[in-house]
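Minutes, project huddle
Topic: does the predicted pose make sense with nicotinamide-adenine-dinucleotide bound?
PN asked that the exact inputs be recorded in the minutes so nobody has to dig through chat later. Recorded below.
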Amino acid sequence: MEKSNPYQVAISQVRNVGRILGLDEGMIEILTKPKREFTVNFPVKMDDGSIKVFTGYRVQHSIARGPCKGGVRYHPGVTLDEVRALSMWMTWKCATVGLPFGGAKGGVICDPKKMSKGELERMTRRFTTEIAPIIGPHEDILAPDVYTDAQTMAWIMDTYSMGAGYSVPGVVTGKPIHLGGSEGREEATSRGVMYCIREAMNVNDIDPQRSTVAIQGFGNVGKNAARLLKDELGARIVAVSDSSGGVHDPAGLDLEALEAHKKATGSVKGFKGARDITNEEVLELECTVLVPAALEGVIDAGNAGKIKARIVAEGANGPTSPEADRILFERGITLVPDILCNAGGVTVSYFEWVQDLQYLFWSAGEIKNRLNQIMTYAFAKVYATARSRNVDMRTAAYILAVQEVVKATKERGIYP
Ligand code: NAD
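Predicted holo structure (tokens), as shared on screen:
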């Protein structure tokens, strides 16, 4: 089945809520069109002496509620429509958890797995310089996403600072701690996912200690979610996968040994004592909780009927199509939507930005407490709205988030 266009999915989600809220067409146009879309083509010297021209994007969806905020993705499949969708989802995500940001996202079309560290550094620095006119700590703050990490953020921060002539830590979040990064940022998205799963289990009367979990994706979000769900909720992780496939062990996977295996072989596949499965099979396994934590568009009308989990917790952005949402809702499966479920990342990014602006840093305990409070409160609000309006949790989260953005837009007025 052809993968759905993420921007079309993002538009249809807003239109759906627009109908429920009775928004007029002008407001829907404002909400579905990114404020600014920046495309850059730039040359990079490769290790073999050749020059390669890369294409990158930075899309700023909304500044209605504050500066723009969003990650940067390095992937061969990056498209402008994907970045548009991701920037929109950031706007709703920040509004869902009450952060004073609008959404943005960036991406570079490249295959980071085939590039050396030097090539990645030169590409990152040039991309940063190309988008420098529209980013900054009060304009648009970047963060890690697929195949970018704390090192990438350090290069962006340094490059931006060289242009400014002084250090500007607040232009990126997800930095190394000694460069102004925050305690707890590395695991923040997964910690938020874990808090949401805890709350979803609570409202569904599920005992975490007797629950099983399947996770698609074993990167920053998937790996940390596996560890936190096991260590802090006592859940059994029965399956995980990465880009080359997955492994299944109903008795529970030894996560430390699995990480060592992936480090040694480059993949989770072939792990001793576990059965190799495909990425599609991971989604359809017998388990209590399914965590898609890789890329968008993996749960659609074709496989939504086959999902056996009672809770789907979206670690990834946009993993579920609108048709699949309807099928899962009709089947009584609790889906915790991305704009709530993975908002822990941007929440601790917000903490990092606040700390950078104040040059005052918080303890790991304080970060966890504040994150727990924000996620628990947001979950309760979205869940209560879903129940009272008899809609799925995504629609409920969108109702709350879109209302916030509409309110800000109306109060500010249409310039001039
Ligand atoms: P990552 O680069 O650390 O990991 C991505 C993982 O996905 C890897 O394990 C990779 O092997 C796997 N993968 C890639 N292609 C795949 C495929 N076709 N099938 C199955 N697995 C595949 O990225 P990440 O930061 O963990 O991001 C994962 C998802 O979470 C993305 O949707 C991202 O937008 C979302 N997200 C990330 C953050 C964050 O703070 N990092 C915050 C919110 C949402």
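Observations noted during the meeting:
- The chain has two domains: 34-174, 188-341.
- The chain has a mean pLDDT of 97.
No decisions taken; revisit at the next huddle.
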